[in-house]
């Protein structure tokens, strides 16, 4: 039986861990060849590639610091040159540095790195990938429901970078629509992984904050990304899909 994404190539930044890794698995299970970007853990990337190759697809990792737009752009170009095409781009690399705005010791470097990784690098990746992407392609960015709801103290900087990406996505969807390239954001809420969850260090109880009463599994967020990457989502663009258990309701 032909798989939905057979012959397609997907590039996933932040693809060695968490939601990015779960997305890579799901797209590979649908037949897509996978390129993953990673920043420092070469062993984790190597293990992820072996796991994807076991699914009988071509897979390769590419190292790039997401805060360095030159490295990120080179990664995109190298991945496309290696695979010969690009059909799906998933921006899953993100960081969160928490701290209240009235703290005189607030880390401005933390703000700058969040801007660099969460907004600038993602925007630059899309700008680099779009001219290389085939018409009818898919671009999905992993965001956070905190873009519209800070939800707790100490998250102003992170919220600002997430909100910026929503605005950029809507504009990019307009720009790329004539080529039938869709551009969307999947926003997670609480995730069952402290590495991925900027709210993990705060004492907001799941049972009162989240109507479903629990954090998401990375695979539950990845499923939404995989849907937007599929042929079934061909008429969805410029939208924000919350996968947050009702946290933003």
From TrEMBL:
Q: What's in the keyword line of the UniProt record?
A: Oxidoreductase
As one GO molecular function, the record gives: oxidoreductase activity, acting on the CH-OH group of donors, NAD or NADP as acceptor
Pfam families assigned to the protein according to its UniProt record, in alphabetical order? adh_short_C2
InterPro entries tied to this protein = NAD(P)-bd_dom_sf, SDR_fam
Stretches assigned to coiled coil: none
UniProt lists the family membership as follows: Belongs to the short-chain dehydrogenases/reductases (SDR) family.
- List the protein's name: Oxidoreductase
- State the organism named in the record: Thalassospira profundimaris
